[in-house]
Amino acid sequence: MTHVTLEYVEQGNRKNYIDYLLLADESEEVINKYIQIGDMFSVYYKDELAGVVLFTFDSNEVVELKNIALAPPFRRLGIGKRIVAWSLEHYKREGQQKMIVGTANSSIGNIAFYQKVGFRMVGIKKDFFNDYPNPIYEDGIQALDMVMFEKQLRNIRPKK
Fold this sequence. Notes:
This protein is an alpha+beta fold. It has helices spanning about 20-25, 30-35, 80-95, 110-115, and strands at about 5-10, 40-45, 50-55, 60-70, 100-105, 120-125, 135-140, 140, 145-150. One of its GO terms (molecular function) is acyltransferase activity, transferring groups other than amino-acyl groups.
């Protein structure tokens, strides 16, 4: 990844990146439920800290892109696309079958982004954001439902 590098973040150091995680998930209470599980990487662009990405594992075959956040100066530079491309290859090599990701119904830019990088819409978790302590609004739309996407990492053989 030209100019983009990822460095694994050990569990004991993850709280140092809370401000970045809050860029993508507005509830510290919710972040605290997943910050210590899975794989977390700090993202550098031209040797400057640009953001973080965190993956959790739903099963032995499913990896979830739980949080991806870039500081505003690093957005729209293609860094997110590079992170996703790297993660798809990395977790395919690790034996994962598919990657899933969810975003709010109000996150119009994220919905477009995930489709542009090859994810397919597979479902909606209705009222997902009702559990958040405060209402979330983006572009004048209240976040109520989680839109779920997935991308196969391996070819699925049809059942005979």
